[in-house]
From TrEMBL, chain B:
Family annotation (SMART domains): AAA
Protein name: ABC transporter ATP-binding protein
ABC transporter domain segment(s): 2-224
InterPro entries: AAA+_ATPase, ABC_transporter-like_ATP-bd, ABC_Transporter_VariousFunc, P-loop_NTPase
Keyword match Transmembrane: no
Gene Ontology terms, MF aspect: ATP binding
Keywords annotated in UniProt: ATP-binding, Nucleotide-binding, Transport
PANTHER family: ABC TRANSPORTER ATP-BINDING PROTEIN ALBC-RELATED
Amino acid sequence: MKITFNKRDPVYVQVMQHFKEQIASGKYEPGQEIPSRRELANQLKINPNTAQRAYKEMEEAGLIFTEGNNPSRITKDEQVLRNLRTELIGEAVDTFIAAVKPVNIPMDDLIRLIKEKYEKQKGEHS
Amino acid sequence: MIEVKNVTKKYGRKKVLQGVSFTANKGEITCLIGVNGVGKTTILNGIMNLTPMTSGEILIDGEKLTKESYEKIAFIPDAITMLPHMKIAEAIQFMKDFYNSWNDERAEELLGFFRLKKEERISSLSKGNVAKVNLLLGLALDVDYLLMDEPFSGIDIFSREQIADVFTSHLVEDRGVVITTHEINDIEHLIDKVVLLDDGTIVREFHTEEMREMEGKSVVDVMREVYRG
């Protein structure tokens, strides 16, 4: 696991964001075991208290769960996973709109452009 | 908790520290930051009672430093205090003879962690490895609080990374760590709390995550505000 941290957002928020992206993209599978708090701190070179905070927040948000003394795992809750995808896509679209808004392009042209580029990038990646 | 309360230190007429107050908690890494000569090392010496303070009070877990509480706390100076011709094993033996709180198991673990060989002489080691031996000799003590004076200064980047790794490991877990530094870049994500010193006084004291969360500022941002005015 590797995260390039920026210095101005809380580290725990950045760790959560990383997990959200990995879960939404399916790189972390439902029910998959995740590193302990200590291992996470060590892998990411972050303060152990911060790793603890990130896990606590993710646990409360239902993104991960812990049964007894077992290692924590990624949630299997379909509803949480769907919401997560919606949330991340929503955020990405917001960012995109904010970036293209100043250009003032007609909606139809914009959608055509998105379709073209999306298909092209898909082709390149597969 | 280490509590430094309204501490002043004068050398003759020169005031080195003036009304310094801050706390350092157990289970947290507190970082004293300031340019050289600002009084960081004097504070550490004050906590260890190596230098008497002119006025003010320093408490460890609510009590003044006594012979007993002295065993709860270790000071790791910025340069190794062992003789250069000593082998690492001899330095370890020296510490073991001297301190009741020496933990052999942890010392062995640290040797592995830092990839150091016991039979090597201190004089034959690189600067980075000498710094690691210095750190090992303090970290292997079973103490609640560790004071480290400039653990990152003057050594290569890979040694700095290895030393930073110690802070995220169980070797430091649950202890209270106070480190002094004038270079923060490598370790911004490692520390819990920052105490900024300028001209013998404390100008800011904050938790790094809170600062990022509430004000969206990095440690360096705050330092820039303080030191560049």
